Amino acid sequence: MAELVWKGKGRARRARQVSLRTDEVYGDRNGVWCNRLVHGAVERVLPALLHEHRGKVALVYIDPPFDTGGSFDYRATIPGAPEGTPRVAIPAYEDARGLDAWLTWFHDAAVVLHELLSTGGSLYVHLDAHAAHYAKVLLDEVFGADAFQREIVWRIGWVSGFKSRARGWIRNHDTLLFYAKGGRPATFHKEYIPYPDGYVRRDGSPPRGPGYPIEDVWNGSELDRMDSIQIMSFSGEKVGYPTQKNEALVSRVVRASSRPGDLVLDGFVGSGTTAVVAERLGRRWIACDVSPLAIHATRRRLLTLPTPAPFVVEDAGGSPPSGGALRAHAEVTGRSCTLTLDGYSPRGRAIPAEARAGVTHWSQWLEGWCVDWEYDGGALRPGSRAWRTRGTLALSAPHVHDRPGRYLARVKVFDVLGGTAARTLRVHVA
To answer: Which pairs from 326-332 meet CB under 8 Å and 24+ separation?
Structure first.
């Protein structure tokens, strides 16, 4: 078998053993499975998962950096700002390792992913022409050439505007490399595109099957529309995170290569699409990302679902999100306590003057907030939470304690720029 060689290959690298710290707990765990959203780089997070999850992951979908040599920004909108107020660009991640360093980093991740996957578990790696061909040879070495199942071409969509000015052939597709540990997928649910109304066979008889079987070119016809949300001006899925992928795209992968209750892993969750899709399709999930903005976007999407399953937010020792200055107070009447936010201002981030000018009330900086009414000094366990909906955000939350006593109320806010701030208040309930 052919082998890919790069500068740095084969050098001994000691796996970084870290413990994941639980920062937030949403929902009642009750000793059952709890989904996991982890802030940290894959080289720290994946090894930390091995002890508990080795050989237990049914499906891995990853959309890692493509080694494009560029950088990508999160685009934050300030709610309630006048029309025309510019969005705030916040650096989300750098994608400029260089090919040798990228291959070393990707190889180490692939080795641990192979250990985490169950026998017959599926791996989908979403890339483009910058690294897909190198990754194919590398994955053949890690998983074995027989593990390779298919190269899937995802057509991004129509071509117009600036993109159409490029000289030569216009780039308009990404590649998904599909592998199965052991050479044969344990799960694969074949899907079909329904026949259009009025369809008949060549002899004029009605169709007998369920439809056209989905091939390895996706979004290749009018019957299989799966255009990237990045080229759709008014997609309701957009959260401002760069390189966000469609829910329909990831849903097709999750439906085909996992069953309800299976464990799905995404090491580069970005905007949170894999976690949201796995949640909606009844799969268990683990999602991680090195960017605090990715954790912010994913948490927000999950908590605005009607009834998300319990999940925790954990940290592997990555760089913390930028914070801000928070003011709040609590008022107590009998056993009733009302906590009210009094002010917030972001810190440590470059915000254009035009964007700041669109803020007439401090609450416009906030995306949401939550309160742990009986904080014990460990992970935050929100008993109340509020998220901005249709431009409005509640600034106070009531709570009734079951018994008198002295409590700590921990309030945590999430701002529109991806930052957080927390404050602990002492509450005496009579």
So the answer is: 326/411, 326/413, 326/421, 326/422, 326/423, 327/423, 328/411, 328/423, 328/425, 329/425, 330/409, 330/425, 330/427, 332/427, 332/428, 332/429, 332/430
